[in-house]
Amino acid sequence: MNSWAEPIHCSRRGASHWRRHQPCQDASASGHGLSLDGLPVWVMAVADGHGGSRYRLSDRGSRLACERALALVLTAVSQRRLGSPDDNGSRAQWAAWLSRDLPAAITSAWLEAIAADWNASQPGAAEPAGPAAAPCEPATPTGSSPTAGSRAAAGQPFQPLLYGSTLGLVLMTPHWWGQTGLGDWDLVRIDCDGEASLLSEERQEIAAGEATCSLCQSEAASLFTSRSGLWPIGAPSAPFALLLSTDGLRKSCASDPDFLLLARWLAGMPDPTEAPRGAELAASLDRISREGSGDDVSVAIGRLEPARHRHAPERAATSADSAAPTLPAPSADLNRSTDSAVSSETPAATKPARSTETAESKNWTSLSMLGADPPGTAANQPQPRAPGPSPARKPRALAVIGLTLVLAGVGAGTTALLLPWPRPDAPKLATAAAQQALQQTALQLCSAPETISRQLNRRRALIDQLRQQLHQQRPKPGWLQAQARRDPLAAWIAISLDPALSAARRRQSLELLGACPALIEALPVAPSPQQTSKKRPKWAPEDS
Amino acid sequence: MPFPNVRLANRPLHFLYLCDCSGSMAAQGKMQALNQAIRQSLPGMAAVARDNPEARVLVRAVSFADRALWHVATPTPVDQLQWQDLQAGGITAMGEALELVAAQLSTPPMEERALPPVLVLISDGQPTDDFQAGLTTLMRCPWAQKAVRLAIAMGHDADLEVLQQFIGNEPQATPLPAGEIPGASGQAPRSAPSSRSPRRPLQASNATSLAQYIQWASTAVVNAASMPASRTVQAADGSNIPLPDLPPTVLDPSDDVGPLVW
Prior knowledge:
Chain A is α+β, with helices and mostly antiparallel strands and about 550 residues long. Chain A is about 35% helix and about 15% strand.
């Protein structure tokens, strides 16, 4: 079973904030818990208070955002099952929860928290415990962060605007991971070969320049949708790391390649033992701010550990294991700032050993999403057979067979060779935006299955055209991602029509991408080889 | 493991003067006053730049008369800038000046991580070319949309309407619905527009007030733009950067007296 190392998080006051005697308006946090079926779950978050006189309590707003978000996530996780790795229905529900239900709960809880914080600041009220200081961060400078007495002293009415903050959050489970949030945070994935890719950023058309989406906006909950996503993890997966950061990090770099290189170093990839930790991490972030943007800087780093030895028993993968949890109960020990010395240092027991696996393919992401393991990973190497059937064995075998067939098809010039797309080895869905677009479309259609047929019928011409293209020419590179942006359902149709996939592989791929059974049944299928050898049959839509 | 070889960089802050050099600027010492005001503002601007090392203040200037030309073409660190006097003569190709600036406000040559630029348009008259075309070209640039756009009207013959178009519409006060708590919507409470606002053309009627406005733009505005606090997308107050208050002496009309009135 895949397992995650304890996340590391750190927030540092920016160089310009030091000079202007302003507090650190960033916050970060991490925590862990167990799902209802006993699987370990990690969550990490960063938040960036807007700063400035208009948002003068945003340092408290950002910390309350991290605290409330973590508490909500871990409570919800403890009451739900993650399900098995193949439980795509459950995964679709989690995706919907991340993009819709959780944001509503977070914004509501945050508004309650800041209102309580404000009320506690009224004259005569006891000083509230308040949010803990940011991790890695020395005490807030005296006089720079409003105390309870001073927060309401100006006679100013309560306004959520005063506490305005962004929030980025990543939830990590053995079977998948997902992100949600709003604002100008960035999320980078660093694979075990050191290749880093920017998975999520705030789109310029949503917020340009120094503007960003904020929890204090009335429609905040809906703004999470475009930043939400859920990513399946192959079983087992090669190690990789996720780096979540506030905008101070990226804006300190001269270019995006510099930012990705910095993310790779901070995440300790490919060698986690060489990653900066504790004081070294704090000093590095200070340097980044000092030589860069001057802004506060926060990072939270999650890392999928190298797969355990194949014949080791996969604990906690079955419901029987839920009675013997391997981690403490949830939410009691959120890694907040007060344990900064501990939380910024990965415990030796959880530090992953140096990976001995072969470097994985650059196309791993797309293969993983299509249900295949990356070439070169343990799944594709001869392995000692574990006693008894392994739930993950069949999909892996299918994936290997699928890859072999495709490669054989290329070599032999068979029909599979002529497939325009999606070639299983092409990173057609390796971008977060493309996957999110597909998932959102699936969510919309699956929440109203009666609309699926109508939507497909509107694309009859497209379906016919695609069927013809499958036998005539390859599409231009990037076609699938472009379709995912313009018309995600067209991309769904394309994937479903991929004649390289057997019926089982087709279903598996669609499920892994987030399709519900109703959508899978309704999508058109590729003609069988017998049909393709004859004159192309007139397509009969499955929904008719 | 040593710190990686990555390029950390402070964020460039481009400050652009667009100066009217038409023949009318030669009258009543306006050209001389403008040259003097800009030259005198440079030390203060350099001091602000030193106080904000996270911003790299780079100055350029465009002059426009019969044609629009780069007076300072290279983005120059403010502490290295030697101001050469502008010369008056010709008509007012303001639209062409905007197009000239627009060509430099796309990425590249603008850096992706640049701070919102500051554009200061100074004029004493009316454009004689197609101002609307120039403005349209300029405002197609995302960096122009993000920019802090200020305008200084020298004397009473300046076309305030044109200068206001360059700045953009001043946000109007929107009264809250009855019973609504200020700020409950997440929007910044807006105050009624004052008669003197940096979101309107600043009217300099003598050399003293011109110098004050130039000084304000090159120090207070640069300071605000050097380390902008992030803001919510809804909190737009008409400017990408919360503009600092105008200097009190400029706000007070009684101080608006100088040796020569334009």
